[in-house]
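job 3f2a | input accepted
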Amino acid sequence: MRIAFMGSPDFAVPALRALRDAGHDIAAVYCQPARPAGRGQAIRRCPVHAAADNLGLPVRTPARLRNDTAAQDAFAALDLDAAIVAAYGLILPQAMLDSPKRGCLNIHASLLPRWRGAAPIQASILAGDSETGITIMQMEAGLDTGPMLLRQGVPITLETTTATLHDTLAAIGANLILDALASPTPPTPQPDADATYAPKLSREDGRVDWSQPAETIDRQIRAFDPWPGTFTTLAGSPLKILAAKLSTSSGTPGTVLDNTLTIACGHHAIRLTKVQLPGRSALSADDFLRGHPVPPGTVVGS
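job 3f2a | predicted structure (302 res):
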């Protein structure tokens, strides 16, 4: 089948590789333009761009698609059977949605209609959902509102982080899109009444509010691993929280309760097990406390 692949981050790479390995004719790979990244602000290709180059596939990196008739005409000229979209980062205008013979299929990282939007993996963990998954959706003009073709669920446990769930869902998405192309199924409309939305995240979303219950903060830590990360303030410096465990201890929210970095929450407490100061290596709580004693009664987050 002659297809275009449209994606940018690591999440989309397994699907690109799977489509190529399955023998599909990938006429073009669309992804975000290379941008400055890292401390040195070196120009860096996105993960899909790097993977496409390694596979010898032609890459297109338009900065925009809306109101760009040249880009839309170039897409139409590919004469596609289908376009596969996975976290691309640009909105496709209607002319492009209508161009491929089988339309544009999206690999979405939730069980739609739950968690439409930009950050479905994080939202599912943050909300305490017991399950999420992948939906293959026929794209339309609305934000993740198109009819569903295939869905596959995966459990969320008390150990699940966005990092681990991301990789699991990326692999499921790669397999499920092959099934969708090989065996077309009738589309099922989404029940809009059940829809929820996962807005784009910012770094400030990672700030801990110690008045919240320990279970909520634990989900925040797991949901925001690796990005945007979860942090508090200790002695005037940001302290990134990389891992923690629930505790049944209690006290005034934000107060360190013992010598193992257990911090009281609005209900119960969290024991930090892995932390990081700005510009420093990540450390276990034990190693951190050897160099940075934090006596009981210290208040964090202020």
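job 3f2a | The longest helix spans residues 162-182.
job 3f2a | closed
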